[in-house]
């Protein structure tokens, strides 16, 4: 395989040429509590601060609609999670929707925050990208690892609900993300830009 020259950018490999699973999502239905449980995982390359989203979302939700924000240290990896009841969704055939949000976060370059193998099921992914120029390659590599780990869980990456969020350290308009968007979300994949400075876009 030819290695990319210094001035070239890689693009994520397509999964269409590979044999991939056909399962889409795995929502867990609890007939005792009459709840449909949905798990969404925030992840990204090392240093992308995926957990900043969950902390901001947790702070914005009504206390009576959210669970406790929990931080778990798993070796060198940090996992932040909580659950909540979304407003306005109502019920589905008498069942309430409960969303469980998880974020994989580490400042250690030796920890792969894009490996979702610790989860038995995933219903959606938010890939948190780092907009810094020096991190474009890390974003692309991380995005590919997320795709592989989702397929390893038995789901079809092509039909998995996936959104890309660019998390800026300063105001969201500080950096041009055209190149990054072309690499990670060239089609109709949902794309948002957020600011860790003021919490906008989370």
Please explain how this structure is put together:
- With 202 residues, the protein is an alpha/beta fold.
- The protein is 17% helix and 28% strand.
- The protein contains 3 helices and 9 strands; from the N terminus they run E-E-H-E-E-E-E-E-H-E-H-E.
- Strands 1, 2, 3, 4, 5, 6, 7, 8 and 9 form a 9-stranded mixed sheet that branches.
- The longest helix has 17 residues, at 136-152.
- The model is unreliable at 1-25 (pLDDT under 50).
Q: What is the structure about, briefly put?
A:
17% of the residues lie in helices and 28% in strands.
Keywords:
nine-stranded mixed beta sheet; disordered N terminus; 202 residues; 17% helix; globular; alpha/beta; 3 helices; single chain
Oligomer: single chain
Global mean pLDDT: 78
Form type = globular
Number of strands: 9
Written as H for each helix and E for each strand, in order along the chain, the element string is: EEHEEEEEHEHE
Beta-strand proportion: 25-35%
Unreliable parts? 1-25
Report Rg: 17 Å
Gap between N and C termini: 39 Å
Q: Assign a percent range to the helix content.
A: 10-25%
SSE-based structural type: alpha/beta
For the sheet with most strands, the description reads:
9 strands, mixed
Question: Helical stretch count?
Answer: 3
């Amino acid at each position: 395989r030819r290695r990319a020259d210094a001035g070239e950018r890689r693009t994520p490999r397509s999964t269409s040429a590979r044999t991939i699973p056909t399962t889409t999502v795995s929502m867990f239905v609890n007939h005792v509590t009459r709840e449909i449980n949905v798990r969404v995982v925030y992840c990204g390359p090392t240093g992308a601060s995926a957990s900043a989203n969950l902390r901001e979302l947790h702070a914005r939700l009504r206390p009576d609609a959210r669970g406790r924000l929990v931080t778990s240290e798993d070796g060198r990896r940090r996992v932040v999670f909580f659950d909540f009841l979304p407003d306005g969704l109502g019920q589905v055939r008498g069942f309430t929707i409960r969303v469980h949000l998880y974020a994989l976060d580490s400042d250690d370059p030796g920890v792969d925050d894009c490996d979702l193998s610790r989860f038995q099921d995933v219903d959606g992914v938010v890939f948190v990208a780092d907009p810094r120029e020096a991190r474009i390659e890390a974003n692309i590599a991380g995005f590919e690892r997320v795709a592989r780990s989702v397929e390893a869980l038995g789901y079809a990456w092509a039909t998995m609900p996936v959104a890309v969020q660019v998390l800026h350290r300063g105001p969201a308009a500080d950096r041009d993300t055209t190149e990054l968007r072309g690499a990670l979300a060239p089609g109709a994949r949902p794309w948002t830009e957020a600011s860790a400075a003021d919490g906008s876009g989370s």
